[in-house]
Write a structure and sequence with these properties.
Layout: H1 2-48, E1 68-69, E2 72-73, E3 87-92, E4 99-105, E5 113-117, H2 127-138, E6 142-146, H3 168-181, E7 189-194, H4 196-207, E8 213-217, H5 223-233, H6 241-252, H7 262-266, E9 272-276, H8 287-299, E10 305-309, E11 315-317, E12 321-323, H9 328-331, H10 333-347
Parallel strand pairs: 5-6, 5-7, 7-8, 8-9, 9-10
Antiparallel strand pairs: 1-2, 3-4, 4-6, 11-12
Helix pairs in contact: 1-6, 3-4
């Protein structure tokens, strides 16, 4: 009987130990999960945060604009590209209570149109869309520059972008305004995007098969790759990107890594893409542009075209900063102007 009691006691002790281990394991898993979600929320909100000041460019207008990075004006003289006769318009989205602010400069006659889309934390007041728009105005095109949601003078909800998942509807709204309200044939409308705007334009390109030609300046190919590389640069493990994805779904209902701009490259068919990406881009590494280019070439059909350009160069900002992100329009201004004239002239059948 003593042996039985001893065995029973040991058995009970083992069960208690196992139960405690299980409780500790469950507690650790819950703590780890909570930390993963909390860190993911921080990463998501940091990565998706929109700077409402447009990087110091809110004073820019089509008839008077300067180049700035991080709010610091550079030495580039852009005065010869200023243009007037523009109008402010407001677009509304059918199924969303949003107002999209835009500038329109309409050329005489039945000229083709180009829609310009800015980058993250930027707006239509930035030289990165004003300068190329001015180049096309000089070539006789009509242009529209719009502020995506959460940017510039457009509606704001939570000051977070969605990596193009929702913003693509703003692009399509602008495109449809030109197509339907102005009665411009789809094959005479081009779209231009820079940085986040380039990724968003690529998503819109995949969504709307009638978009005939698109220019992508410094596009990202995959938002997850961007977040993972940013985490590694900051010294954090790349797997935390999964936490950011989950946090986006949990707190906003949107998967910012869901659809990727590569879908646009894959959907090219008989349409036309121009991809420009600086070799010294520190914000979105050039391999993103190269991947977009390779993918578009692989899926292009007989009547389509893909042009890829990887210029070198950086811009000095202030006394001790440099950047290579979306700067070729400044460092290679004449060539940029020439390439845009040739690409849109050929794909939109417009010769000035």
């Amino acid at each position: 009987q003593n042996l039985k009691w001893e065995f029973f006691s040991k058995n009970q002790s083992m069960k208690l130990v196992n139960q405690r281990i299980l409780v500790w394991l469950l507690g650790f898993m819950l703590l780890f999960s909570a930390a993963w979600v909390f860190i993911g929320k921080y990463i998501y909100e940091t990565a998706a945060n929109v700077n409402g000041e447009c990087w110091g460019n809110l004073s820019n207008r089509p008839d008077r604009f300067h180049s700035r990075f991080w709010g610091i004006r550079t030495e580039h003289d852009l005065s010869e590209w200023w243009f007037g006769d523009y109008q402010e318009v407001e677009l509304t989205l059918e199924n969303e209570a949003l107002r999209i602010s835009a500038w329109v400069r309409e050329a005489e006659g039945n000229a083709p149109w180009i829609l310009f889309i800015h980058g993250l934390g930027s707006c239509k007041n930035n030289h990165a869309v004003l300068l190329p728009a001015a180049m096309m105005v000089r070539q006789g095109y009509s242009v529209m520059l719009l502020d995506m949601r959460e940017h510039g003078a457009s509606s704001r909800i939570n000051q977070l972008h969605t990596a193009g998942q929702e913003e693509l509807h703003d692009v399509l709204n602008g495109w449809r305004w030109i197509h339907e309200k102005k009665g411009i044939p789809a094959e005479e409308i081009g779209v231009y995007g820079v940085s986040l705007g380039a990724g968003t334009v690529a998503l819109a390109f995949a969504e709307e098969p009638r978009i005939h030609a698109a220019w992508l300046d410094s596009p990202f190919a995959d938002m997850e790759k961007i977040i993972r590389s940013e985490l590694q640069i900051a010294g954090f493990p790349a797997f935390l990107a999964g936490g950011a994805k989950f946090a986006g779904l949990l707190f906003s209902g949107i998967d910012i890594m869901g659809r990727t701009p590569l879908e646009g490259a894959e959907s090219i068919g008989n349409r036309h893409l121009f991809i420009a990406h600086g070799k010294q881009d520190e914000r979105i590494p050039v391999f993103h542009g190269e991947l977009m280019c390779e993918t578009a070439n692989a899926f292009m059909l007989e009547d389509g075209s893909v042009e890829c350009w990887y210029p070198s160069g950086q811009v000095t900002v202030g006394e001790d900063k440099t950047t290579g992100h979306a700067v070729a329009m400044l460092t290679e201004l004449e060539e940029w102007n020439h390439q845009m004239k040739e690409f849109f002239g050929r794909t939109l059948n417009h010769q000035n």
